[in-house]
Amino acid sequence: MNKIKLEPHRHDAIQSPPISRQQRTANDHISPVTVMKNKRKMWRHMLLSGAVTALLVGSSALPISIAHGADAINGAATVTAASTSSIPSSTIAKGGNQAYPNIVFLGDSLTVGYEPDRKASSYDGFTVRLKEQELFRGRATVDNEGILGLTSSGLHNYLNAITAGKKVSTSDIQSSLPGAARTLDGASVAKQIRSANLITITIGGNDFLNALGSLTALPQDLSGLNLEPVISGYETNLKAIVDQLIALNPSATIVIADQYQPVPAVSGAGVYSNLNALAAQFSEIVSQTASSYKAQGKDVRVAHIAEAFKGNELSMTHIAEGDIHPNASGYQSIAVAFSRAIWGENGYRTPPTSVNATDRTIVYTNGRLLNSSTPPLVRNGRTYVALRDVTTALGARVAWSEQTKQATVTGSSKVIIPLNGNAIRVNGQNVPTDAPAFVQKGKTYVPLAVLADGLGYDVQYVKRWKAVFVRQ
Question: Looking at the record, which segments are called Disordered (predicted)?
């Protein structure tokens, strides 16, 4: 691989008091949120003084465990113009409707979806948005195995434990992970990976940080730094990671993000140019790694996330607040880039603008927008849908009995739904419900829970679009 030359500039090194080993150890015993806030104060001070540390995605000191299959869908974000930048045609996927019902997310804080001052339960990163994209194509079961602060060697070590089916402590896979150690279940994750149709990876930001050395004494002239060991180590680890994943699951599609750089041009022309050159070198490793596996007939792709951030660092990250992670706009751009790598140039989908403009809940049945004159209703915080419209669209039959005041739905199961009742009957068995069906303007409305519990449909609600996805 051709190495990118770093052009020297005449600037003094940035000097700050070093962080002692005792201070780092002490961080393990204080609130992780406090640790991150302290680091953000340092980064903000450096940014405002023009002395910006070089950090990439994933460099974090907050150890948070992400729940598997989290569906936190909060807030809304728009795609910036930069997020629709051109993507090399060699990485565009075929088959925009291809379903990936089992998805595993691996990597660092970018996979976690970290944003400052947000609770982990409300993270709304690119993985949440990719799950939403899968709902247009099929059912979605997702497992997020992101670990804040993870390096490529840490992920390699984690995959060693996964391959062996062993439990492992976070302190054993990577000693630099701060906070209290926790146990990871390698056997459980191995099962997830073997069942996966799609695996995404974000890794390398912390390798980039390690290449630069101390956060507190970083020269704007980077030409004197010996970066080769970290860069070559990243290349070796990335190949090993992909090898491990292919050994666990030879048929899964693997998509790896390239590396973006969050420091804006206001940091100085020299350091900005050099940091982008370093990021490009890491990204080139990702591209060449994917190409080498593609030549072997393996489905390994690149999500080109980096280009959209160039020139948009301040609007797409929290860097102005002293934090290097993407904001909502940044994560939206990353989701678009992954969607393109997975489903093609127009792979990222949203409901039609004309539908969104109505500000009402919309329904998709088996991935298709349900055109109905009876839109969903909300009562007491519950969403109700017109029973006949939805079930007919999904191929079920509905019969109404005026005498008994109940609807009978026949599909893969037989469900009897009485009006204003506190239970429904599924194949002869009573199933309690605290949201009874009702009639309005000649239409029988049922809560989403009835579709899921009674008819066995998969029902998902996406808050950002006010959209209900119902699938057999």
Answer: 1-29
